[in-house]
Amino acid sequence: MPASPSTARAINDRLALRLLQQEGPLTAGQLKQLTGLSRPTVADLVDRLTASGLITVVGESGAQRRGPNARLYGIVADRAHLAALDVRTEGVLVLVSDLLGRVLAEASVPIDGDTGTGPAVEQAVTAVENAVKEAAAMGAPPREGVGGWGRLHTVGIGAPGLIDPATGDLRDSAGLPAWHRSLAATLQERLPGARVTVENETNLAALAEQREGAARDRDTFVLLWLGHGVGAAVVLDGTLRRGASGGTGEIGFLPVPGTDTLPSAGDCAGGFHSLTGAAAVVSLAGEHGLPAPATVDGPGAAEVVRGAVADVAAGGSVAGSPLKAVTDMPVGAVGNVPAVAGVPVGAVATAAAGAAPARFLRALADRVAVGVASVVAVLDPGCVVLGGEVGQAGGAVLAGLVEERLRRMSPLVTEVRASTLGGTAVLRGALLTARDRAQDELFAPPERSGV
What angle do CA 88, 91, 95 make, to 5 degrees? Predict the structure, then answer.
């Protein structure tokens, strides 16, 4: 059944807008070539989108070409503003952008763990309001005849915990501050003209890695988030999978060997979290004689891992040296071997001390591989991205060690990659989600969008 004229116009408009977003400014002739539409149809949609305030003339294609056919059309970036929030246990990161992702304002608000729910929410909401006001001052002046110009259209929030797939609400989760669950409702109340949405932080990180990061060439992959806590996001055939209750990827609760107990419904202690969460990573580093960070959280654990990687890169790669020999030993073997390749015991002991960062990374990779192998056995994703602050800090070194161990544990060929976005992935994912949802409405035909 052929589409109605209004439906056909909507499809054509969205196609043109997506191309302008992806390719940048285009002439009507280039739009005709890329869309396959007729010249009159392209002329009509250009007129329609210009009248609705979504596109405008931004220049000409070249000095040799003048007139209507040379006009370059681009999306009006200030047509609406977007806000993205990365909500953490210790505070909130805020970013406000235009429709093309140009950052107009940023804010970072630390929130002490002893702060009550009301004051904590007020601090976070005030930071968002201030960033929105700053963005409005940075934006272009309103265009006459275009309703809603430059207003905050959509707020995307990334938060730890379970998101109810039926309501979109953040569900109660043990260990998370109470103010997390009040933030979205308060923002919606204080910003009544905006649409406020909440998504699990790891899911947003996966979206960002798929669009802009390490998984750009993958339709199927798993993101393993290694930070203050641990989590996973599952993307199958290009679609993010949330599960029946929104809990897909709650890998911190995965029962694993090497812990003293089993996790419970309200506490992931004893699960995979106990092996690879920030506190576990810092403790493991201490066992290998590495200095403790100032704070035991995601950035603190990342600091330890980053330092170990730097130490190994600086002095642990010389083939045939005592350090290389010790690094190649199984964890725990140092001290049981009287000499290495004719080197005296004292030299081996010295090398063992120098090899502490390498042995720490190998032990950490062993732990991470336990969880990765479980995910691979069930999903066979072909690719696992190590994300979060710790995943990015470990880089190619940690990813390579995990992949090496995974090859021994699983017959399923799996590539392990390091995140290229790290701790910024949640904020980027929140912004991308906000932009998608805003464009779903703004790119609608004028008669439906209310312009």
Answer: 85
**DSSP symbols for 183-198:** HHHHHHHHSTTSEEEE
Q: Which helix (H) or strand (E) holds 88?
A: strand 81-88
Q: How far apart are CA 287 and CA 291, in angstroms?
A: 10
Distances in whole angstroms, Cα of residue 266 to Cα of each of 140, 177, 179, 195, 294: 49, 14, 18, 31, 29
- C-alpha–C-alpha distance, residues 65 and 208, integer Å: 39
Q: Which residues of 171-182 are buried (b: 16+ CB within 10 A; e: fewer)?
A: eeeeebbebbbb
Contacts of 248 (CB under 8 A, 6+ apart): 232, 233, 234, 241, 242
Q: Tell me the C-alpha distance between 364 and 166, whole Å.
A: 37
Tell me the CA end-to-end span of the chain in Å, nearest whole number. Answer: 29
Computed on alpha carbons and rounded to an integer, the radius of gyration of the chain in Å comes to 26
Task: Tell me the residue type at 167.
Answer: T
| Residues near 90 by beta carbon (within 8 Å), at least 6 away in sequence | 110, 111, 112, 113, 297
- How big is the chain, counted in residues? 451
Identify the CA nearest to 135 among candidates 115, 120, 155: 155
* Long-range contacts of the stretch 235-242 (C-beta < 8 A, 24+): 235/206, 235/210, 236/379, 236/381, 240/203, 240/206, 240/207, 242/163, 242/165, 242/200, 242/203
H or E element, residue 215: none
Structure confidence by residue, pLDDT tens digits, 286-341: 999 999 998 888 889 999 999 999 998 887 543 333 334 334 544 444 333 333 34
Q: Are 181 and 140 in contact (CB under 8 A)?
A: no
Predicted structure pTM score? 0.82
Cα dihedral 166, 172, 177, 178 sign: positive
pLDDT tens, residue by residue, 31-53: 999 999 999 999 999 998 888 88
CA geometry: angle 336, 337, 340, nearest 5 deg: 155
CA dist 341 and 322 (Å) reads 8
